[in-house]
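Appendix B. Raw example, untouched.
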Amino acid sequence: MLRVLVMVSGGGTNLQAIIDAVNSRQITNTEIVGVISNNRSAYALERAEHHGIPACCVSPKDYENREVFNEKLLEKVDEYDPDLIALAGFLVVIPPAMIEKYRNRIINIHPSLIPSFCGTGYYGLKVHEAALARGVKVVGATVHFVDEGTDTGPIILQKAVAVEDGDTPEVLQRRVMEQAEWIILPKAIDLIANGKVNVTDGKVSVAK
């Protein structure tokens, strides 16, 4: 049984997608062992509580510096003893020590087709604003493993979504979530839970 820890900063719609997929058995061999947020008011914490999932807040604001916060965050992660960490809209830089300890066991969902509209400064609505400003016809989402760079880790799954006339950043964001993010993040977890994902020389192969 894959022990998954979900980390999230906001409303937790991707968390909800994971919970729903576990409950419907779209994700198999998996249990959600906990939720961590850096934001005490994140609705994701309420979502976890509603479903009986242990949840807590570890906020940088509660510590004197980022080094101490990083240590406390890793301590809390270790308490959940996860096999996989899913970053589902977690807007905090992951400490290098955590990346090293959980190498190829941390995944992230990004709302673009990496390498487009990714890296430092590209998060949330900013991604969709940039895509519309550039005039692209296709956007999408990517699930990737986390490494020391920003959105640079090995890609697991991607799904394209069409841009439509009259799209606003908010409308496009919602479509990308519904048609891509909420589909490929649970799918990636299920593939990992069933031993179908391998990483070799920085590239992912998915068994049929």
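End of appendix B.
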